[in-house]
Specification:
The protein has helices at 12-18, 33-42, 57-65, 103-113, 120-123, 129-145, 192-206, 221-229, and strands at 9-10, 22-26, 47-53, 69-80, 94-97, 153-158, 161-170, 175-183, 211-217, 233-244. With 246 residues, it is of the alpha+beta class. The protein has a ten-stranded mixed beta sheet with strand order 1-2-3-10-4-9-8-7-6-5, with helices on both faces.
Length: 246
């Protein structure tokens, strides 16, 4: 993996998926932009995916001057786990750990729930929509393959079928995360997402984490309403820019 001190690196996963030599960086600054562009020129990068802090307007405006286009705004919500637990959702769904032979059933839900998802990939008209959908399906497959031996990968069943999934992880001894999940469109509005939130909180508490984080798109209003009602607060955010060199 080629990189410079500014943190930019070649993303082999994105190159394999889309066919363009792609670089990525999170936390780009106005002062470091020149080094990043030099790296891209040296490495013959075709697409740069760059994220800057939501409060770093100097970086955002400098990228705009250099021909970057804003693709999305990613926001992180945090919940202090020393506070009382959120009220459990009333749902007819049954929750349990995923079984070893249920990968394809879970993937089917992922395909439906992430179809046309409003992330930075789908926002770029130069990227194929079907390949953009596959990004999230690939993440789900990788999460399934690397799942722990405990209950960190749950599914929800309704009417005898898997209709949702949620994956938890520890980022550190202090921080847990509900980092991936999807609910089939036909079963949204049944309290399943809130139920996953409650189970994620319980999972993190059982591992003595002090907080839990969740990220979502700024325009995903429905999810943010659930998060705020459940005691989550906005903690940070990032603007995602794309810069094409071809």
């Amino acid at each position: 993996m080629n990189s410079v001190s500014s943190g930019v690196f070649i993303s082999e996963i994105d190159r394999e998926r889309f066919g363009f030599k792609t670089a990525r960086i999170t936390g780009i600054t106005a002062g470091g932009l020149s080094d990043v562009l030099d790296f891209c020129a040296k490495e013959k990068v075709e697409l740069l995916i760059a994220r800057c802090g939501m409060s770093d307007l100097a970086a955002a405006q400098m990228m705009e001057k250099k021909g970057f286009l804003l693709m999305d705004t990613l926001v992180y919500y945090t919940r202090d786990l020393t506070r009382p637990l959120p009220q459990s959702a009333h749902t007819a769904a049954r929750f349990r750990p995923i079984h070893a032979d249920e990968e394809e059933a879970m993937v089917s839900v992922a395909k439906q729930s992430f179809n046309g998802y409003s992330g930075h990939y789908h926002a770029d008209p130069r990227l194929d929509n079907h390949q953009c959908n596959d990004v999230y399906v690939d993440w789900a497959r990788k999460a399934f393959a690397s799942r722990a031996d405990d209950d960190n990968f749950l599914v929800a069943e309704m009417e005898g079928s898997i209709v949702a999934f949620g994956v938890f992880r520890l980022n550190s001894a202090e921080e847990g995360e509900l980092f991936l999940g999807g609910v089939h469109p036909d079963f949204q509005g049944h309290g399943i997402y809130l139920a996953f939130l409650c189970r994620a909180v319980e999972w993190c508490l059982a591992r003595r984490a002090g907080r839990i984080i969740i990220s979502t798109q700024l325009n995903n209003i429905a999810v943010q309403k659930v998060l705020t009602k459940s005691g989550f607060e906005v903690s940070r955010g990032y603007y995602t820019f794309h810069k094409w060199f071809v």
